[in-house]
Amino acid sequence: MLHTFVALVQDKPGVLTRVASLFRRLNINIVSLTVGESERADISRMTIVCEAPDHAAHRIRASLYKLEITVDVDEVGRADAVIRELCLIKIAAGPKTRSQIFELANVFRARVVDLAPESVMLEMTGAASKIEGLIQVLTESGYTILEVSRTGRMAMRRGHHTSRVLKALGTPDPDHSDKTSFPEKPQADEILPSEFAEDEI
After folding, report:
1. Does residue 127 come out as left (phi exceeding 0), alpha (psi in the -120 to 50 range) or beta?
2. Does residue 95 carry a pLDDT above 50?
3. What domain count does the chain have?
4. Mean pLDDT to the nearest integer, 17-21
5. Taking CA 35 as the corner, what is the angle to CA 73 and CA 138, rounded to the nearest 5 degrees?
6. Cβ–Cβ under 8 Å, residues 18 and 55
7. Does 89 score more than 90 pLDDT?
8. Is the pLDDT of residue 167 over 90?
9. What are phi and psi of 25, to 5 degrees?
10. What segments bear the compositional bias annotation Basic and acidic residues (predicted)?
11. Which residue stretches of the chain are H helix?
12. How far apart are CA 89 and CA 141, in angstroms?
C-alpha cells in the first residue's frame, strides 16, 4: 500500500540524510521523495511516498514528527488533497511519426517541449496513473521511449487545511527581521495516537 506524507522541515544540511536514515531503520521503502522551497525561505516542503502496510502509517508519521528538524507532518494520501507529478518523456520520432505523437499528446494534455530531428520530448503534469497511461499507450503503439524523468508526487491539502500549515510555520519575529521564530512544537502524544507517541525511532 502506498502512503503519501507531506513534511515541513527546517532547511539545514543533512535533512535528507536524516529522513532517509529514518526510513532505513524502519525498513520502509521510499517510492519517491520530492523536496523544495516552501512559503518560508528557511523551511522546505517534502513529499514522501512510501510502500508500507496500512498499520505502519501512524508509526511512520510519529517517527517523522519526532525528528528535531520536522516542523509538521501530515499524511495526505487519503485526504482531500491535490496530488500531482511532473514527467518528461523523450520519444524516438522522425518526420513521419511526429504527427501521431502530437495527437496522443493532445489526448493526454501533454505538451511538446522539445523537437529534434530524431526525437520529441513531451511534458506532462497530472496524477501518476495518467502519466503511466501515456507511457503505456506510447509503448503499446510501438514507439521507442528513449528517456523518462519523473519528479515523484507533490501534494497539498485543499482549502481550509491551510490554517494548520500557517500555525505550524509560525510568524516572523519583529525583533529579528532576518530571522523567523517557530511556535512551540506540540508533543507527539498531543497529535498522534497514544500507542505511537512513545515509539522509539
Report:
1. beta
2. yes
3. 2
4. 94
5. 115
6. no
7. yes
8. no
9. -65, -35
10. 173-188
11. 15-25, 57-65, 98-107, 128-140, 162-169, 188-191, 194-197
12. 15
Which residues make Cβ contacts (< 8 Å) with residue 97, sequence separation at least 6? 143
Q: In CATH, what number is assigned to the domain containing residue 119?
A: 3.30.70.1150
Q: Tell me the three cell numbers of residue 159.
A: 482549502
Specify whether 114 is located in the same domain as 132.
Answer: yes
Q: Classify residue 13: in a domain, yes or no.
A: yes
For residue 88, the enclosing domain spans 82-150
The average pLDDT across 93-116 equals 95
Burial (CB < 10 A; 0-12, 13-18, 19+), residue 129, is exposed
Angle in degrees, CA 76, 111, 78, rounded to 5: 10
C-alpha cell at 32: 519517491
DSSP-derived 3-state class of residue 197: helix
In which band, very low, low, confident or very high, does the pLDDT at 179 lie, cut at 50, 70 and 90?
Answer: very low
